[in-house]
Specification:
By secondary structure, the protein is α/β, with parallel strands linked by helices. 38% of the residues lie in helices and 20% in strands. β9 and β10 form a beta hairpin. α2 crosses α3. The structure holds adenosine-5'-triphosphate and magnesium ion. Adenosine-5'-triphosphate (ATP) binds next to α1.
């Protein structure tokens, strides 16, 4: 459909990772084994270390102890082994859509200007933005900007995609549309995905597996294998009994972990998003 070849995904091994910023440990022996092409979601209360984990996976941060291996090899920060999509689009406001998407290719310097433009255009088509190549970011909706961010990450053809609440700033309807778009892209491209979210519905709808993180430094609270059949579609999947069962289990989990006091601090954590989950749990 898009003339884009399947990228495929790498195995990711997080092995006994210890990490701390200062005095208090964030991870004290975290281990997660992610299969090639697996869609893993991570949920947990605010401050439990989700973004820290992604920064460790990207090589922006280093474990004090333990290792992170991609396809059996330790990750190297100088090796562009991942694509990253942030909560906010973080596009260059003075560059057009297609210039934003081709920026990484320009930095890499392997393609001619014509080839770069052609590739960026194909990835924009893939995310449904054909015809918007010459728009500036401020002339796009929030959902469209996030599509550009996705195209910008995908155009580098990473075999690992790291996503930190990429649809958290979008309204519920746009978010559901983006969830379907992401599943379509993942089905077509096949990367390994580590997806952070505060939204239980989103985690259940998208993932093969959901890891609930405890407050630091307790690591994994639950590792849930998601057997909802694929392909998934909103009306069928979101109303199925299994979907509700997973959702109920996860709401209960989050209520437990959000209530646990951080052992590293006298103060409680900033519980903005967790409070939302607790409200949801109370419904
Ligand atoms: N650069 C930093 N220096 C010191 N402490 C930090 C730094 N970044 C994060 N922290 C602390 O580490 C803990 C984990 O932060 P992190 O951002 O990974 O949480 P999170 O799970 O992503 O939270 P949220 O859901 O709010 O995005 C928090 O207590 C945070 O205050
Ligand atoms: Mg975060």
């Amino acid at each position: 459909m898009s003339n884009i070849e399947r990228i495929g995904g790498d195995s990711l091994l997080i092995d006994d990772v210890h990490f701390n910023y200062g005095a208090g440990a964030i991870f004290d022996g975290l281990s997660i084994d992610v299969q090639p092409g697996e869609f893993l979601s991570i949920i947990g209360p605010s401050g439990c270390g989700k973004t820290t984990l992604l920064n460790l996976l990207s090589g922006f941060l280093f474990p004090r102890q333990g290792s992170i291996k991609l396809r059996g090899k330790p990750i190297a920060p100088e090796d562009p082994h991942f694509g990253y999509v942030f909560q906010h689009a973080t596009l260059f406001p003075w560059l057009t859509t297609v210039e934003n998407v081709e920026f990484g290719l320009r930095m890499e310097g392997n393609l001619s200007p014509l080839e770069r433009r052609e590739k960026a255009t194909r990835y924009l088509q893939l995310v449904g933005l054909e015809g918007f190549e010459n728009y500036l970011p401020r002339h796009l909706s929030g959902g469209m900007q996030q599509r550009v961010s996705l195209a910008r990450a995908l155009v580098m053809e990473p075999r690992l995609l790291l996503m930190d609440e990429p649809f958290g700033a979008l309204d519920a309807i746009t978010r559901e549309t983006m969830n379907d778009e992401l599943l379509r892209l993942w089905d077509e491209l096949g990367q390994t995905v580590v997806f952070i979210t505060h939204d239980i519905d989103e985690a259940v709808y998208l993932s093969d597996r959901i890891v609930v993180l405890h407050r630091p430094p307790n690591g994994i609270f639950r590792d849930l294998s998601n057997d909802l059949p694929r392909p998934r579609s909103g009306p069928t999947t979101r109303t199925s009994e299994l979907f509700w069962q997973y959702k109920k289990e996860l709401i209960a989990d989050i209520a437990v972990v959000a209530n646990t006091t951080n052992p590293n601090s006298d103060d409680d954590f900033d519980d903005g998003p967790s409070a939302r989950l607790l409200q949801e749990a109370a419904l």
